[in-house]
């Protein structure tokens, strides 16, 4: 009989690492399996790390985690082809430890997190792909890996294998991936001397700035871009719904969108001279509340991106991944302590904990957002151009009186047939944000 564990965790991203760490810390016998050469080698993120979710698991993480910059300023820019209009929020409150958010580089961060998981006592095997779940009827009893004699057994298997979880689909826990529910994102890390970054973004020491971008940059597709400051590099990326790329295969490619973004007159000076260090593409599950599948059953649980736990409105994913990983692990620990078997009846406590947490509350709050955005492409085309056009009209001093300018602006909204729709759109957004 092959070796048996209390728990097998598939994947060593934020959700898998949090689950494996929490379980191992509690003294459970844990096997973690990762297909990458090392944890982080296959992982892609912007990346903003939200401190709270990690702090709940590793309170002193700031002592040795590879953190890039703590974020003191958040910018949101709406772009047209030549200009942007934006809001900047900078606060000195974000400049006082303990800091709330950091930029990170996932390859380094995941490696560090994994070292903590192993210190806690979990056994990690890399360069090994779990090919399928071993089922005894409806009950998951282990996994089969792509190694000789690769069958391993456990009381519970935690699927932390990321978006597009083939394992969950094969086992029938997930439906096929819906291109309307996932974004395809590409990003680059551009190396740049620290002093240049500090000067361009008006920051000192390890202060950081992040910029979220929307508008014509996505060429009418539902999506956004981003530009984040790291210690001695910048991360720039753009992502749009996979369904939009598929529907318009000749219009553009993710790579072309990113190249266009890099050449935008408001972006190009910020990244000028940057030397490309890394290029990556990845999917992001953005279906929200209605796309979350069944996340537990007899002997199995789903955490992180595999369960679609991403809040696209607030651009949060890694914190939901860590929180779901922790709640799944705590459910298993409590069940073990009570001597219960890992049946669906026992593991439903995980779903109850999720419902009580910010994870499901936030996803529920924005449950209509995917539908509203996906059915309103003009939010990403017409409105950005109208808003930047209005700013240009108003701020150009050319002897035209302001009343006439106001009429011109209203006229441009009318011409775009958006004037009456504006009230309806505002109402739709208000309802979806409420
Ligand atoms: C471009 C981009 C930018 C993002 N920016 C942010 C951000 O700024 N902030 C934020 O909070 N979130 C962000 N996210 C989302 C965030 O990256 C994810 O929500 C998070 O990584 C999910 O963690 P996870 O552990 O569930 O999955 P992953 O990080 O995808 O980890 C899954 C792991 O499982 C392994 N694996 C998969 N299948 C198998 C198998 N069969 N056998 C063994 N191993 C397997 C993979 O190699 C991988 O290591 C971003 C995502 C992208 C793509």
Write structural notes for this entry.
By secondary structure, the protein is of the alpha/beta class. The protein has three domains: 4-66 and 104-175 and 293-356, FAD/NAD(P)-binding domain (3-Layer(bba) Sandwich), CATH 3.50.50.60; 180-285, D-Amino Acid Oxidase, Chain A, domain 2, CATH 3.30.9; 370-433, no CATH class. It has helices spanning 14-25, 51-55, 106-119, 166-170, 194-201, 242-247, 254-263, 268-271, 318-337, 344-356, 358-365, 369-374, 382-395, 402-415, 419-433; strands at 4-10, 30-33, 48-50, 67-79, 84-90, 101-104, 123-125, 130-136, 139-145, 151-159, 182-191, 207-215, 223-229, 233-241, 275-285, 296-297, 300-302. The strands form two sheets. Strands 3, 4, 5, 6, 11, 12, 13, 14 and 15 form a nine-stranded mixed beta sheet that branches. Strands 1, 2, 7, 8, 9, 10, 16 and 17 form an eight-stranded mixed beta sheet that branches. The longest helix has 20 residues, at 318-337. Bound molecules: flavin-adenine dinucleotide. Flavin-adenine dinucleotide binds at residues 10-16, 33-36, 42-48, 129-130, 160-162, 167, 185, 187, 237, 239, 282, 284, 304-306, 310, 315-319, 321.
Briefly summarize what is shown.
The protein is α/β, with parallel strands linked by helices and 434 residues long. Helix content is 35%, strand content 26%.
Write the layout of secondary structure elements.
Elements: E1 4-10, H1 14-25, E2 30-33, E3 48-50, H2 51-55, E4 67-79, E5 84-90, E6 101-104, H3 106-119, E7 123-125, E8 130-136, E9 139-145, E10 151-159, H4 166-170, E11 182-191, H5 194-201, E12 207-215, E13 223-229, E14 233-241, H6 242-247, H7 254-263, H8 268-271, E15 275-285, E16 296-297, E17 300-302, H9 318-337, H10 344-356, H11 358-365, H12 369-374, H13 382-395, H14 402-415, H15 419-433
Parallel strand pairs: 1-2, 1-10, 2-7, 4-12, 10-17
Antiparallel strand pairs: 3-6, 4-5, 4-6, 8-9, 9-10, 11-14, 11-15, 12-13, 13-14, 16-17
Helix pairs in contact: 1-3, 1-9, 9-10, 13-14
